[in-house]
C-alpha cells in the first residue's frame, strides 16, 4: 500500500465571530490525496472549501486533527520546519495575489529571494525556467497590470512552482477567467501534473472545471465531506449511486465528456509531449530541488 502524499485526519476549524458566536467552517474532515492525483473539492459558496484547502499548508491552523504532507505532520512542526515544509506546497488563488509593483520576473523570484541561499544567477536561471514552462518568458519585464487574467494566473503558477514543490494547491484558479482562458489554464495544470508529477488539489464551485481535470473529487457541504469518488479513471470508474445533487451532476457531466478525456490520454498526445520543445525544461524542473530538500 502506498502512503498518500497528503493525509488529512479528523480536521476541524471553528471561527469565532465578531458577535462572539461560533461557526464550524470545517467539521471532522478526513481525506487522502495520492501522489499524482488531481484532487477536486467542490461545493457551494460558503461550504468551507477555501478554509479546508488552507488547512493543507496551515495557512489556517486546525483546532483539531492532523495534516500530513510528504510524511511530515505539519501541526507538530516548529516555525522553521514549517517554513521549510511549505516550500514543498505551492498555492495559487482566484485573484492571483501578485505583487503589483514588481515585474513578472521579480514576482517569480520573490519566494526564492526570501528563502535565501541561492546566488542571483541561480535564481535568474530558475525564474526563467519556470516562466518558459508557463510560456511567459517574453513577459519577464512586464508588470501585472500589463497582463491579461490568464497571463497573471500563469505568473502565479510559475511563482508557486519556483521552489520545486510536490504539491500545488489551487483555490478557484479559473473563477476570474473567461471560458476559453479557463480551458487553456486547465490544460497547463494538467501538463504540470502529468509531466512534472506535481500533485494538485483544486477547489472550485464550477462543475465543468473539476470534471475536466480531476481523477478524484470530494463534495463539500456545510464544512464536511458529503461524498468522495473517482472520475476520469477507466479502471477506477465508480458507478455507485451518488448521494448528493452535485455528485450526480458531476458524474453525469463526466460521463458526457469521457470521449474527450480518452482523446487527451491517447498515445498521439504522449508523442506530442516527447517532441515538445519544453520537454527539456520540464525535465530540469522536475529534477529541481533546493539543497534543503535533498
Ligand atoms: N476568518 C473567518 N472568520 C469567520 N468566518 C469565516 C472566516 N473565514 C471563513 N469564514 C466562514 O466560513 C464559511 C466557509 O468559508 P469558505 O471556506 O471561504 O467557503 P467557500 O470557499 O466554500 O466559499 C463561510 O460561512 C465564511 O463566512
Ligand atoms: Mg472559497
TrEMBL record:
The keyword Metal-binding does not apply. It comes from the Bacteria. InterPro entries: AAA+_ATPase, ABC_transporter-like_ATP-bd, ABC_transporter-like_CS, MetN_ABC, MetN_ABC_transporter-like, P-loop_NTPase. Pfam families: ABC_tran. Residues 6-247 form the ABC transporter domain. One of its GO terms (molecular function) is ATP binding. Keywords: Amino-acid transport, ATP-binding, Cell membrane, Membrane, Nucleotide-binding, Translocase, Transport. This is Methionine ABC transporter ATP-binding protein. It comes from Duganella zoogloeoides.
Amino acid at each position: 500500500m502506498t502512503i498518500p502524499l497528503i493525509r488529512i485526519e479528523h480536521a476541524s476549524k471553528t471561527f469565532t465571530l465578531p458577535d462572539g458566536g461560533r461557526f464550524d467552517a470545517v467539521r471532522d474532515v478526513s481525506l487522502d490525496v495520492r501522489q499524482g492525483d488531481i484532487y477536486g473539492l467542490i461545493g457551494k459558496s460558503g461550504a468551507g472549501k477555501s478554509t479546508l484547502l488552507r488547512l493543507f499548508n496551515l495557512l489556517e491552523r486546525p483546532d483539531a486533527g492532523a495534516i500530513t504532507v510528504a510524511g511530515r505532520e505539519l501541526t507538530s512542526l516548529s516555525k522553521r520546519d514549517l517554513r521549510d515544509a511549505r516550500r514543498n506546497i505551492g498555492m495559487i488563488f482566484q485573484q492571483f495575489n501578485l505583487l503589483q509593483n514588481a515585474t513578472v520576473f521579480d514576482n517569480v523570484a520573490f519566494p526564492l529571494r526570501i528563502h535565501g541561499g541561492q546566488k542571483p544567477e541561480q535564481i535568474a536561471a530558475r525564474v526563467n525556467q519556470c516562466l518558459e514552462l508557463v510560456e511567459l518568458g517574453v513577459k519577464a519585464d512586464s508588470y501585472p497590470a500589463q497582463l491579461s487574467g490568464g497571463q497573471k494566473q500563469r505568473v502565479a503558477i510559475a511563482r508557486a512552482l519556483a521552489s520545486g514543490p510536490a504539491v500545488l494547491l489551487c483555490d478557484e484558479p479559473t473563477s476570474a477567467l473567461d471560458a476559453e482562458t479557463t480551458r487553456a489554464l486547465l490544460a497547463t495544470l494538467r501538463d504540470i501534473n502529468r509531466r512534472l508529477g506535481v500533485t494538485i488539489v483544486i477547489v472550485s464551485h464550477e462543475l465543468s472545471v473539476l470534471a475536466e481535470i480531476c481523477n478524484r473529487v470530494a463534495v463539500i457541504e456545510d464544512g464536511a465531506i458529503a461524498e468522495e469518488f473517482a472520475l476520469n479513471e477507466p479502471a477506477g470508474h465508480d458507478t455507485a449511486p451518488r448521494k448528493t445533487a452535485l455528485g450526480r451532476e458531476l458524474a453525469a457531466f463526466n460521463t458526457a465528456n469521457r470521449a474527450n478525456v480518452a482523446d487527451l490520454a491517447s498515445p498521439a498526445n504522449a508523442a506530442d509531449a516527447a517532441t515538445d520543445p519544453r520537454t527539456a525544461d520540464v525535465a530540469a524542473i522536475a529534477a529541481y530541488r533546493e539543497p534543503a530538500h535533498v
